[in-house]
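Checklist before submission:
- one chain only
- standard amino acids only
- sequence pasted in full

Submission:
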Amino acid sequence: MKSEAKAARHLREANNAFKAVRTEQPMTDYAKDQQSLHENHERLKAARLVREAKPKDDQA
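Returned file contents:
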């Protein structure tokens, strides 16, 4: 009885150790383009906000 339980436990541990890893789907070209467009938009927006936050020296 103990050896059967021990074998079952080892089998469970082995199955967990070699469980298939869930892989992410590779990004399509469209998704890559959309992501880079979004990142570029956010970068440009941040740069614009920094420029607008600086005091204007030309208004003297």
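Reviewer check: The first helix runs from residue 2 to 17.
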